[in-house]
């Protein structure tokens, strides 16, 4: 049996995001005790989902893909910050995302992304993509850096590496200085995804009501987000399938000499996930970690 651990609130401080854990209705011990009921095996052909807990009307419960922040395009920024050896003063997010998308397709992984039904302005509807500029702002905010490092350390546990952390943080700071130019045209990403991988973009319904973050390390499993929300009085959960990031790096950087790239990519991915939660939430969500059975 996988084991679930309570990490506590994201933070005791006030984060910049609007979303709070107030939607929680179910006593926490009950959520923990029943969490496994909402995890299913991923279908390898199913498209990658966002960590978003909102309702996806087209979700096929028998064919769920893994959840990562920003779906497939979200990995592009992690690659830029953690791995790319190019000059950080060049390149664009749309260019990086296109490259990442091609890698997914080449490796037989099913990319995915989503829009929103109530998006206004120039947003594409996915907090993890729309807000990338504020995500970068949060990651490099001196007021938030202690929280950020603590959570990244907790999630990466024994794999945490201080040098990787500082390097990605430094890359983030450099990129932030030209984030306007880098993220220009990011709205085209979902059109690109639609074109290159037809049917890979879904539209999520309604409002964010996430009350939990569940970090899942049990390989091959993912949360049924629709079912979780309906069983918890509408309270949703962000689901991050961290095992999927590890699987992705193993595919992207397969050689023994790629060890450092693998480690840096994972650091960047987790660092951006925490920064995304800083931009989306006020820090009051409860964090749960789901680990494989012992032995
Ligand atoms: Zn999203």
Please provide a written account of the structure.
The chain has 295 residues and is α/β, with parallel strands linked by helices. It contains 12 helices and 8 strands. The strands form 3 sheets. A 4-stranded mixed β-sheet has the order 1-8-5-7. Strands 2-6 form a two-stranded antiparallel ribbon. α6 packs across α12. The longest helix has 22 residues. The structure holds zinc ion. The site of zinc ion (ZN) has 7 residues, from α4. The site of zinc ion has 7 residues, from α4.
Q: What's the arrangement of secondary structure elements?
A:
Elements: E1 3-9, H1 28-34, E2 39-41, H2 74-82, H3 93-106, E3 113-116, H4 127-130, H5 132-139, H6 145-156, H7 162-176, H8 179-182, H9 189-196, E4 201-204, E5 210-216, E6 221-223, H10 225-231, E7 236-241, H11 242-252, H12 259-280, E8 286-291
Parallel strand pairs: 3-4, 5-7, 5-8
Antiparallel strand pairs: 1-8, 2-6
Helix pairs in contact: 2-3, 2-12, 3-9, 5-7, 5-12, 6-12, 7-12, 11-12
The site of zinc ion (ZN) has 7 residues, from helix 4.
Biggest sheet: strands, sense, closure?
4 strands, mixed
- Low-confidence parts, pLDDT < 50 over ≥5 residues? none
Based on CA atoms alone, the radius of gyration comes out at: 18 Å
User: Which compounds are bound in this model?
Assistant: zinc ion
Count of the separate structural domains: 1
Oligomer: single chain
H/E series, N to C? EHEHHEHHHHHHEEEHEHHE
Q: What proportion of the residues form beta strands (DSSP E)?
A: 5-15%
Approximate shape: globular
Distance between the termini: 11 Å
- Spatial order of the strands in the main sheet? 1-8-5-7
Tell me the number of helical segments per DSSP (H or I, 4 or more residues long). Answer: 12
Helix content: 40-55%
Return the average pLDDT rounded to an integer. Answer: 90
**What would you call the structural class?**
alpha/beta
How many distinct beta strands?
A: 8
